[in-house]
Amino acid sequence: SLNTERHEYDVVVIGAGGAGLRAAIEARQQGKRTAIVCKSLFGKAHTVMAEGGAAAAMGNVNSDDNWMVHFRDTMRGGKFLNNWRMAELHAKEAPDRVWELEAWGALFDRTKDGKISQRNFGGHEYPRLAHVGDRTGLEMIRTLQQRVVALQQEDYETHGDYEAYIKVFAECTVTRLLKDGDAVSGAFGYWRETGNFILFDAPAVVLATGGIGKSYVVTSNSWEYTGDGHALALLAGANLINMEFIQFHPTGMVWPPSVRGILVTESVRGDGGVLRNSEGKRFMFDYVPDVFKDKYATSEEEGDRWYTDQANNRRPPELLPRDEVARAINAEVKAGRGSPQGGVFLDVSTRLPAEEIKKRLPSMYHQFKELADVDITAEPMQVGPTCHYIMGGVEVSADTGAAAVPGLFAAGEVSGGMHGSNRLGGNSLSDLLVFGRRAGAGAAAYVDGLAGRPKVADEAVEAAREEALAPLGRSGENPYEVHHELQRTMNELVGIIRKPDEISEALQVVEKLKERVALVGAAGSRIYNPGWHLAIDLRNMVLVSECVARAALLREESRGGHTRDDFPGMNPEWRRKLLVCSTEDGSVHVEEKVQPRMRDDLIGLFERDELSKYLTDEEMTEFDGIAK
Ligand code: FAD
After folding, report:
1. Which parts of the sequence belong to the FAD-dependent oxidoreductase 2 FAD-binding domain (predicted)?
2. pLDDT, position 475
3. Helix crossing, 136-159 with 84-103: angle to 10°?
4. Ligand 1 pocket mutation pick from 120, 209, 540 by most atoms within 8 angstroms of CB
5. If residue 158 lies in a helix (H) or strand (E), which one and from where to where?
6. Which ipTM did the prediction report?
């Protein structure tokens, strides 16, 4: 069609974060012509912002660590709702993926004897996060991009063209996936700068678009996390699972208002920082739930000793999984024991020497100094929960990343299952590497198995063009207003603590917003027009928000990143159920699906006592049969 440039690839990877880059590298290494498309600048993906590190049971700091311990921690963190096969692959393969990064040039912090150093993080039994100060994501992206360049140099040697096998299309937003019958045949999008359209003919697409945080007001996520991949998958006929589970990171900045939600890394607590309320009390000791009682210190003295002697002490409760800490902070603030700016105090200044703080947490030191005029080596920070990560995403096959639609793959935050109802810190960076690689390989193998190439239908391209252009032609409502209403609604009505009448109210608002989205107008031309781009993104945010709210209304229990005021406990019956979202004619349908039973050798890694806290009686009877 007019004005639409056209490219042909074997594999199109949408997203240039850790998952997308690792997938693209794999597809190229398997001989596939690969495009990397990203809506932000190349190198500006979310992954860059990751601070704490990548979790991998390398056992460098504590040799008792191994994949089985990591697997158990991950399942506990996700409250046993995780796709156990993904958790298994992740725990087994993460060390290799980290060593591979090192071979490609990543410079991790070191132990005294020269191994990759590993730090403590919430929910991880041993020090496990490979890191580079508090800027791990930056080093990860730098290394993966360097690897892409190295492959391009190889291709230049062989083909005389750097971009023969991998080409990056940056500042290019995909708005629709295209299909030939049931199968993927390409992707359609626009250049942000010119507004011109672009079409990819490709039999395989890997979604690696990250999260959905921008549907909430208070979030650690940056502008591009508008749930595009989630929505593209839904609209192409794939399913989303676990959408009710959203991780509210316990520690975001609460002040000044302009930076509210910006992340304060968990490393602050991992390295000794403690949480206090307005009365100066380390309140987390009051919030250790039964399932974790025997694993956490009961006194401040024991918790403090743990930093130097982990064999003989239990960890401090500040390092409980994130959902527990976020709910505790929420409760303290609600009870009137919050800090002046509406959070609680996070103090590292009385816990470590100033020089040590600057060395271990350089970004945090600068962030507070520059944004809030707070010197974290001398005074406490004020922090509160912020929407950080979505556990839910595209339902994929664990081994290949394949979605239900042939030719569609997903990896990283846009995929669902791996983290169950709650993700442990550090498990995302390792997830990106493990499943990015697997999705790239899955896509390559799929392409190899095809008899012929699918075709893009002209009508589908025309429809995608018209859809994208629609807001420009209208003198409708301002997209920013619609966006703010959606963000407020989700924050207030489908936030940390959920009530059924509030969720229903949110769904009514979302229903109305859908109509308003269909009528928003963007002034100006196609040339670099953020209002127009937001108008396009709104379709995705509203769709994804509907999934979150519908699933949240159905799940009548509290687990991980889903807390129901009217059902405060976990219900073993619900552990077996996944809520699967699909869409037809613009509305979202949710169906229950029973999780497959965990393999015997994996279930055998847990003690009976622990399992009995999560499983139904029926499942326990089965377990006893196996144990015999
Ligand atoms: P992203 O890195 O989010 O990349 C998404 C890519 O998709 C981008 O290139 C974007 O431009 C592109 N994209 C999106 N939509 C489109 C579209 N429509 N068309 C084209 N391109 C599109 N996890 C850890 O494990 N350890 C940590 O220490 C840690 N710290 C964090 C700190 C912060 C501040 C934040 C926000 C997150 C942190 N996380 C951490 C979580 C982790 O960083 C993310 O979950 C992870 O980086 C997501 O990676 P990804 O590859 O899935 O996607």
Report:
1. 10-429
2. 87
3. 70
4. 209
5. helix 136-159
6. 0.99
